[in-house]
Amino acid sequence: MDQETAKKLLVEGGTFVFLGVPQETQFGIDMQCWNTEEDFRGIKMIPPGLHYIHYSAVNKGTGDISPRSGFMHYFQKREFMVKMWDKNMEDISNDEISEESIQRLKDNLLNIDRHLAPYPYEIWQKWKLLTSQITAELAKKLSPINGLIRASVDLLPMKDEDRPRGVKANESIESDSESKDSQSSESTPGQSSAKRVKRTTREEKEKAMLPDLKPAPGAAMRFTEIPQDKYPSGSTPEEITKHYLDQSYTLDLMISQHDEPLHIIGELQFAYLCFLIGQSLEAFEHWKNLVVLLCSCDDAIHKYRSVFFHFIRTIEIQIEEMPEEFLADIVMNKNLVYKKLRDFFRTAYVSKVDGRLLTMIERFKENLTQKLQWDFTGLDIDEEDERPVIVKLDKE
Asked: What are the CA-CA distances from residue 385 to residues 245, 339, 377 (Å)?
């Protein structure tokens, strides 16, 4: 970094002191990660704003790496944060650091300064783009209650009496002939004494054998739940079809659970970072579902122009940072993300989006075509599997 920036961050930058971290522990901030040395004590010159601190314990004997853990924190100017490593848990300590201890470290800052790594400033501009709509309040709202974002969430063990026993014998599938025989032999005219047996599918049997494990209290992510019902109660069949084709109603419900509309983009960014950095597959699924939802709206594009403007800016940088194996799957198999983006571009074409938003959409589409060779031609033509099916009804 240039000298002026370095001087400014030395004065205004935050400091994260991490005491007792074993050598070779994987430690990182934002998109940068290192293996710690023996005299590592933390990070200095952290630009004010939101940051993601993460770590993984490493077994010195085998080299095995534990699932990644971390937390997001909004650093204020000159903030001084101190955390301890718990050797027994091989994790960050839950114990609070006393104000006296923090003050002693501050007073001794000149001596520990050489053990603090400078923030990797070369990633700062890209990081700001990836977190542009995540406020401190939103990050706290979406993070687990205990504050720790884990790649592998602790699950509660089941009590023995709650363990699955499979499907009971009297819930198994009976054949139609057996049911008919039972009714003919035991029923009387006008009344049937044989109860119809509930049919159980193979999926239901398999599900009944699986334990219903739940995350430990305070450990679960708190993403906004995407409504299962895509339409208002009392909707006519025509209205239900409309709401499935245009999911603006569902987006309205999601946005209503936030303090402001742009927080839905903040949640998209938060979920992506918990996947990209935190290695959470749960977060990846939520990110994908949000992308699908935003790409499945028609009326909302005009109602929430600012939301979709920032959606384009966000997903463009996210796709650039996507891990190669996930990006390869999108490119080679034309998976759901590609298909929904194609739907989104078609919707923008049909609904006649204009102005700056249209310019951004066109640029995004061209960039994807150039970098990934994605084909977005023929947007005015229905896909083969999306064409309406014509059903001929027999006349009486």
From this structure: 15, 12, 16
Query: Per-residue pLDDT for the chain (396 aa), expressed as one digit of tens each?
Result: 788 888 889 889 999 999 999 999 999 999 999 999 989 999 999 999 999 999 999 988 888 999 999 999 999 999 999 999 999 988 999 888 999 999 999 998 888 999 999 999 999 999 999 999 999 999 999 999 999 999 887 677 656 555 555 555 444 444 444 444 444 444 444 444 444 555 667 666 666 666 666 777 788 899 999 988 888 888 899 989 999 899 999 999 999 999 999 999 999 999 999 999 999 999 999 999 999 999 999 999 999 999 999 999 999 999 888 877 776 666 555 577 888 888 899 888 888 888 889 899 999 999 888 887 787 887 766 555 554 444 445 554
What domains are there in the chain, each with its CATH number? 3-123 (2.60.34.20), 237-384 (1.25.40)
Secondary structure percentages of the chain, helix, strand, coil, to 5 = 45, 15, 40
Please state, in angstroms and rounded to a whole number, the distance separating the CA atoms of residues 12 and 6.
10
Question: DSSP code of 95?
Answer: S
Q: What are phi and psi of 50, to 5 degrees?
A: -80, 135
Beta bridge partners, 188, equal 191
DSSP-assigned beta bridge partners for residue 58:
65
| Helix 324-333 vs helix 336-350: crossing angle, to nearest 10 | 60
Q: What is the Cα Rg of the chain in Å?
A: 27
> What span, in angstroms and rounded, lies between the C-alpha atoms of 138 and 295?
23
CB atoms within 10 A of CB 205: 14
At residue 303, what is the residue type? Answer: K
For residue 34, CA distances in Å to 42, 54, 301, 318 come to: 11, 10, 42, 22
Cα separation, 226 vs 252, in Å, equals: 11
User: Are 251 and 298 spatial neighbours (Cβ–Cβ below 8 Å)?
Assistant: no
Rounded Cα distance, 123 and 386, in Å:
42
